[in-house]
Amino acid sequence: MGRPPCCDKVGVKKGPWTPEEDIILVSYIQEHGPGNWRSIPSNTGLLRCSKSCRLRWTNYLRPGIKRGNFTEHEEKMIIHLQALLGNRWAAIASYLPQRTDNDIKNYWNTHLKKKLKKLQTGLDGKNRDGFSSSQQISKGQWERRLQTDINMARQALCEALSLEEKPSNLGDLKASNGYYSYMKPTQTSTYASSTENISRLLQGWMKNSTKSSKTTSETTQNSSTNVGGTDSTSSQGTPSAANNDTVSPDSLESLFGDVSQSVSPDDTVNFFQYESKPILGSEASLSLLEKWLLGEGSAHGHEEDLMEASLRDTAELF
DNA sequence: AAGGGACTCAACCGCTTCGAA
DNA sequence: GTTCGAAGCGGTTGAGTCCCT
Asked: Which nucleotide lies nearest residue A240, CA to C1'?
């Protein structure tokens, strides 16, 4: 009963990918670009379903993926964004271009959830509730609308300024609807890191062909040399934001320590107010926002700056 | 050294969304 | 306006690894 599996064909392979399969997939995508996943198994001879190919690519083989430990900044971003967006991992991942939604989801479930739970239980006795639950819901709804506005503003800005050059660190990505999505390579030097991937895969394969598939993760661990790609996710309808996993402002406050401790729990909202409302207190903040809107430079750095500016200016407002 | 519980994370499953016909 | 297939997404699983006793 129920929906049949996407690939109930006999002979479709499941389970961990082998280095050989990785190489085949990367080579194919290098040549044809990602997309048209349906045709990949038949065109490459891979005994995998299209979904599996897509996942393997987006979560593992795609250039620009950063692996390994999350930095403190990334952690904060995730907690912030999770509080605002709920478990919309793809949307959250769009703010952390080097991380995949799967990675973020895993990290949340294995690390951050526990961390915050600990903090929350520590605070429970105090009952310093900043929001009512209804406030949280309306904030979520408001923020989602806001995010759409932000994306539209970004796009409009890019179009208005006829931006032709790509952001320096985004390689072969193209701004689209406020997000960066893959653009089929047309000229030179695209997929440099894929080539690197392949050679690493080959090396790892030759060296450790007998080892488990875990080895692959090491061989393909790739410095983000050229691309900070993300799935071109947009905010979608049916959010389940403010679900049970949503973090209370108390936890955020505790976790962020000195960054947040002097300001209200509404910081999370203020962070996004910066993205759309002209209440910026300083020109510096404005230029940061401008840069961020244009997708210039390292998203990481500017988001951090923006967040700090947000907190700083919020404090100034009071 | 061995057993077993805890943890991690790649991969799968199934529902939803989107776009073409 | 409806249908259908493809792609996207979030939740869940399970194999491998780590750590403690």
From this structure: C10
Residues A3 and A236: their CA atoms lie apart, in Å, by 23
Asked if the Cβ of residue A14 lies within 7 A of any atom of strand C, the reply is no
Residue range A42-76, pLDDT digits in tens: 888 888 888 888 888 888 888 878 877 888 888 88
Comparing CA positions, the residue from A115, A82, A77 lying closest to residue A97 is A77
Give strand pairing partners of A174: A181
Q: What is the pLDDT of residues A73-108, one digit of tens each?
A: 888 888 888 888 888 888 888 888 788 888 898 888
Residues 6+ apart with CB under 8 A from A20: A205
Q: Which residues contact A193 (CB under 8 A, 6 or more apart)?
A: A63, A64, A222, A223, A224, A225, A226, A227
Within 8 A by CB and 6+ apart from A65, the residues are: A59, A98, A99, A100, A222, A224, A229
Distance of A124 CA from B21 C1′ (whole Å):
56
User: CA-CA distance, A41 to A50, in Å (whole number)?
Assistant: 6
What are residue A179's phi and psi, to 5 degrees?
A: -115, 165
A168: tokens are 């320096």
Amino acid identity at A171:
G
Interface residues, strand B, Cβ cutoff 7 Å: A 2-3, 5-7, 13-17, 48, 51-52, 55-56, 59-60, 67, 102-103, 105-107, 109-111, 213, 216-217, 234, 236-238
Q: Provide the H-helix boundaries in A38-100.
A: 39-44, 50-56, 72-85, 89-93
pTM score above 0.70: no
Which single residue is written with the structure tokens 């990918």?
A17
Give the whole-angstrom CA distance, residue A307 versus residue A98. 18
